[in-house]
């Protein structure tokens, strides 16, 4: 006999009908609990309660699935989602049958997060997500799904640049999903979430109620979001239009003068050649315009820089793109085994600008100058 302690009620007129909790493993979603949770999250991303994540927002997070079984190092994450602000949301589904498994999943999601930039940065998240949906049944176009599902009013390339920037800044969201989160797990999640500066960690209980497998009420309950955590993380920086004048002020005031001087040199070179592109982002950065008018490279304050390897960046098409990639390989900026045709958009270079000597920097600018205009 099911317990009456966990139930919801349906009120119709004067009639109040109790709806008892129904174990998800008995529902229509899958043969096992984890299979049920994973299938439901793939089919219905909206069960991740954005309003509970950001209760004060007029535009709470909305989610689109990027990929199931997302590779990260030697493991795979159950689900990777993204919201309309370009924040990656890592979701791991687990059973909590003993204290060891509860501790294990906390460590697991943090390990995923700590490796996310290395394995998903530089355009790899986009590439792996595009491959997943291209091979899905039925296949789908990822960028169209993002535009439809998130209601994006910005250019899709700008959206993916925001994803990359959030990833570099450690601005990600971790979610542990289950049909039940016990008190000790709740306490761990709330504590860790309150102590995190940029990342967020939540628990998500997904419960079903009803007497019929064909008609169920699903109730998502978020764990870990306290008002203290909301207040602590609500002071995020707004996006800025980084003009050349603003960038010069930033570079002149940088603690690391080597990086500041290098960035200033590249900026002056770009302005002289009239290939400077403004970036709108939280942190200072700028781009270089290719001869087709698309962004060919982006530079950021830690010395990181990315190159864009989509065919549309090059007037000469694939042949010119491959020649550009080969030039970067000669400089040791791209892996020798990298196939440019497999890069959806951009790729982070292996060295930072402060790691280049003067001759290498000159060769890099010469190479970029051949394809910018």
Write up what this structure looks like.
- The chain is elongated and about 75 Å long.
- Helix 9 runs antiparallel to helix 10 (257-272).
- The chain folds into 2 domains: 7-233, no CATH class; 240-371.
- The termini are far apart.
- The chain has 12 helices and 14 strands.
- It has helices at residues 33-43, 50-53, 99-120, 124-134, 142-150, 156-168, 183-195, 227-233, 244-252, 257-272, 317-330, 358-371; strands at residues 7-12, 15-22, 63-72, 75-83, 88-93, 173-178, 200-212, 215-223, 240-242, 276-281, 286-289, 295-299, 305-308, 346-348.
- The strands form 2 sheets. Strands 1, 2, 3, 4, 5, 6, 7 and 8 form an 8-stranded mixed sheet that branches.
- With 373 residues, it is α+β, with helices and mostly antiparallel strands.
- The mean pLDDT is 87.
């Amino acid at each position: 006999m099911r317990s009456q302690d966990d139930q919801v009620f349906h009120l119709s007129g004067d009639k109040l009908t109790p709806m008892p909790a129904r174990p998800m493993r008995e529902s229509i979603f899958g043969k096992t609990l984890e299979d049920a949770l994973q299938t439901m999250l793939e089919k219905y991303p909206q069960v991740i309660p954005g309003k509970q994540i950001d209760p004060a927002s007029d535009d709470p997070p909305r989610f689109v699935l990027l990929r199931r079984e997302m590779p990260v190092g030697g493991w795979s994450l159950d689900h990777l989602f993204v919201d309309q602000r370009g924040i990656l949301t890592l979701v791991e589904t687990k059973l909590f049958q003993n204290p060891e498994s509860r501790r294990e999943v906390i460590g697991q999601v943090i390990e995923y997060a700590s490796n996310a930039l290395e394995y998903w940065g530089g355009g790899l998240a986009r590439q792996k997500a595009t491959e997943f949906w291209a091979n899905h049944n039925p296949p789908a176009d990822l960028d169209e799904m993002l535009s439809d599902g998130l209601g994006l009013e910005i250019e899709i390339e700008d959206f993916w640049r925001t994803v990359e920037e959030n990833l570099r800044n450690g601005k990600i969201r971790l979610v542990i999903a289950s049909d039940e989160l016990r008190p000790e797990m709740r306490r761990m999640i709330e504590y860790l979430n309150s102590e995190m500066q940029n990342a967020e960690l939540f628990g998500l209980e997904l419960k079903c109620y009803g007497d019929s497998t064909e008609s169920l009420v699903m109730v998502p309950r978020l764990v870990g979001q306290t008002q203290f955590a909301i207040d602590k993380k609500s002071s995020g920086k707004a996006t800025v239009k980084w003009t050349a004048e603003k960038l010069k002020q930033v570079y002149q005031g940088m603690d690391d003068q080597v990086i500041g001087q290098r960035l200033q040199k590249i900026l002056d070179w770009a302005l002289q050649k009239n290939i400077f592109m403004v970036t709108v982002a939280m942190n200072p950065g700028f781009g270089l315009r290719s001869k087709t008018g698309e962004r060919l490279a982006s530079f950021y304050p830690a010395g990181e820089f990315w190159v864009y390897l989509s065919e549309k960046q090059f007037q000469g098409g694939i042949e010119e793109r491959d020649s550009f990639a080969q030039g970067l390989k000669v400089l040791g900026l791209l892996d020798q085994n990298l196939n440019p045709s497999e890069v959806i958009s951009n790729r982070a270079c292996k060295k930072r600008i402060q790691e280049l000597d003067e001759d290498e920097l000159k060769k890099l600018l010469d190479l970029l100058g051949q394809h910018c205009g």
